[in-house]
Amino acid sequence: MSKITGKRSLKIITLAIAIGATALLGSCATVSTLDKPIKIDGSSTVYPISEEIVRELQAQAANKSIEQSDISVNFSGTGGGFKKFCAGEIEIAAASRPILSEEMQACNNAQIRYIELPIAFDALTIVVNSQNNWAENLTVEELKKIWESDAEGKITNWQQVRASFPDRPLQLYGPDRESGTYDYFTEAIDKARGASRQDYTASEDDEVIVNGVTNNPNALGYLGFSYYEQHTDKLKSVAIDSGKGAVIPSRETVETAQYQPLSRPLFIYVNAQAAQDNPALETFVEAYLEKAPEVVSKVGYIPLPEEGYRLAKIHFERGKVGTVFDGKSEFNLTIGELLRKQAKF
Q: What is the pTM of this model?
């Protein structure tokens, strides 16, 4: 998958879309002129999934004589995406956490109704430089010690984290305040959303975090599992001990609910009225859910079971608006628990 380094600007991808998901996915169907653009923005963690799905659909439709619709794929962080979504500026918000209470209120004030569609699971991954030969694992308490707001300007050396670690400067990299990864991590580790030290290199672009840790032997950072998977030659993942022994992030440890509390679902939120008004958007979301299992694995995340995507399709087809969460993230959530929530929705 091609990468765009630095801050990625709005990327317009022309995608041929025919009425009906089956037409887009390969069979023949009647074609209509579709000229309403589709805009996706939000989580940089979800970005690789959306980018790859659009690329594959574009390639699949390239030889078909059907009309065109512009799809833009961008990231401004989960929080930034929801701001645009609740203002009616975009049709799809990509999110690495559930919609928050204040975002629900903003959407409600603007009369924006949304359909919540889980698309994958992620292992939020702690990474260090490949030369780091001491931090093979960290406890949740040690992560808190490093990242809590009280650590700012105080915990600046690896030896302060654990006495057996070397006397070397500790330099930190992570998502910025608009990121759903930032929200999830601070609430899971620091026990309060946003309760993080701010004396670290912060970016909405995960590639900035990757490059920072890659170029600094004393660095530690956190990001989505896909970005670690793409750079295993440069980065090392750190096993996390939440009280039951150190567990490395992997598809298996997420699926078996061992990697906690840093396993989390990923979402897209679709503007329900826009999906009714724009057949291209409806078709695209159906195709997105169809391709998601394969693409999620391809880009390095953990796909939901078949039942998860089936339930998502049913909710989308029925226009089921709202959220199964209460305006906050849930920690230690397993794939099975997410499916039970979806089934009750």
A: 0.88
